[in-house]
TrEMBL record:
<dbReference type="InterPro" id="IPR012363">
    <property type="entry name" value="PduX"/>
</dbReference>
<keyword id="KW-0547">Nucleotide-binding</keyword>
<feature type="domain" description="GHMP kinase N-terminal">
    <location>
        <begin position="95"/>
        <end position="154"/>
    </location>
</feature>
<dbReference type="Pfam" id="PF08544">
    <property type="entry name" value="GHMP_kinases_C"/>
</dbReference>
<keyword id="KW-0418">Kinase</keyword>
<protein>
    <submittedName>
        <fullName>Kinase</fullName>
    </submittedName>
</protein>
<dbReference type="InterPro" id="IPR014721">
    <property type="entry name" value="Ribsml_uS5_D2-typ_fold_subgr"/>
</dbReference>
<dbReference type="InterPro" id="IPR020568">
    <property type="entry name" value="Ribosomal_Su5_D2-typ_SF"/>
</dbReference>
<dbReference type="InterPro" id="IPR013750">
    <property type="entry name" value="GHMP_kinase_C_dom"/>
</dbReference>
<dbReference type="Pfam" id="PF00288">
    <property type="entry name" value="GHMP_kinases_N"/>
</dbReference>
<keyword id="KW-0067">ATP-binding</keyword>
<dbReference type="InterPro" id="IPR006204">
    <property type="entry name" value="GHMP_kinase_N_dom"/>
</dbReference>
<keyword id="KW-0808">Transferase</keyword>
<dbReference type="GO" id="GO:0016301">
    <property type="term" value="F:kinase activity"/>
</dbReference>
<keyword id="KW-0028">Amino-acid biosynthesis</keyword>
<feature type="domain" description="GHMP kinase C-terminal">
    <location>
        <begin position="228"/>
        <end position="297"/>
    </location>
</feature>
Length: 320
């Protein structure tokens, strides 16, 4: 949404909320599938943690926001405290100065697993902010939404930048580089990379930020350039190479069990690379969707994963 809209105007196709404060706002937010690249990159003259996420269509978060006069704001389920903080910040940003306080009720629903690397918190936060924006007709840009997300959850993913590929500073809420277009499409065979944990995920709040050494930091500069070229040229194979290299670096910080076996499956089935959530327990084998054998390769890889004890699997294609 761009441009300012009169705050109390009733949307022609909306449902007016209590007291004419706005309309009932509704929104959906996507998830991601971990990262293609994560590390440390130069930004504003200093090394800054950044990441490039892999879009995912497997799960969705839905939100509705009913605005009411008064300052109280509630959320359901009550445990969604990050989304509640984000909604409060979004209301503050959308209500013009001098207006009476606005509260309301935020309701979230969806099927996003927690602590696994799908970006469940950011999906909640983004859906909440978009629902508030829809209800109050606020002119929130993607950049403003990113700053709200970081304030609400300390570190955020880049789900709000869905129209392009961005290298995103997750703790600052700023874009380090916008590559100007979507990343090349890939077919993803996703899976739970730590089956012995029973899909319980990773406690990201307890996970210390990775301490990268000088060799790794130099490698990030190379991977940054490779990723820029992959996006510019639509080179899915180069994208897969970046993902594999980033996964290898992350192995020292949050290791994936059976990585040697995963590499063997990737080689045997002609995968473009191995991609992982750098603070979760999911990973994926990447294939070229333009390859006429992509479906057969994916199916064979799924069988081979079963043979090495990885049974939780799903597939999707980015760009669908």
């Amino acid at each position: 949404m761009s441009g300012a809209v009169r705050f109390e105007a009733e949307a022609e196709d909306g449902v007016e909320a209590e007291g004419g404060v706005g309309r009932v706002g509704v929104a959906t937010a996507p998830v991601h599938h971990g990262e293609i690249l994560q590390g440390v990159f130069p930004h504003r003259g200093r090394p800054t943690r950044g990441l490039v996420t892999l879009p995912c269509t497997v799960h969705t978060t839905r939100a509705s926001f009913v605005p009411v006069r008064g300052g109280e704001l509630t959320v359901s389920p009550a445990r969604k405290t990050k989304a509640l903080r984000a909604a409060r910040l979004a209301v503050e940003a959308c209500v013009p100065p001098g207006r009476a306080p606005v509260g309301g009720h935020l309701e979230l629903s969806g099927d996003v697993p927690l602590r696994r690397g799908f970006g469940s918190s950011t999906s909640d936060v983004l859906a909440a902010v978009l629902a508030v924006r829809d209800a109050l007709a606020g002119p929130l840009s993607r950049e403003e939404i990113a700053r709200i997300a970081v304030r609400a959850e300390t570190a955020s993913d880049s789900l709000m930048f869905d129209g392009s590929t961005v290298l995103f500073a997750q703790r600052e809420g700023e874009v380090i580089e916008d590559f100007g277009r979507r990343m090349p499409a890939v077919r993803v065979l996703g899976f739970g990379a730590r089956p012995e944990d029973g899909g319980g995920g990773v406690d990201t709040l307890a996970l210390p930020p990775a301490a990268y050494d000088g060799t790794e930091r130099a490698r990030f500069a190379e991977l940054h350039a490779m990723l820029r070229e992959a996006v510019r040229t639509g080179d899915a194979a180069l994208l897969g190479a970046v993902a594999s290299a980033s996964t290898d670096i992350n192995q020292r910080h949050l290791p994936i069990p059976r990585l040697d076996g995963l590499r063997a499956v990737a080689r045997e089935t002609g995968a473009l690379g191995i991609q992982a959530a750098h603070s979760g327990d999911i990973a994926g084998l990447l294939y070229d969707p333009a390859d006429p054998d992509a479906e057969a390769r994916t199916a064979r890889a799924g069988r081979l994963l079963h043979h090495i004890g990885i049974h939780e699997q799903w597939t999707f294609t980015t760009g669908d």
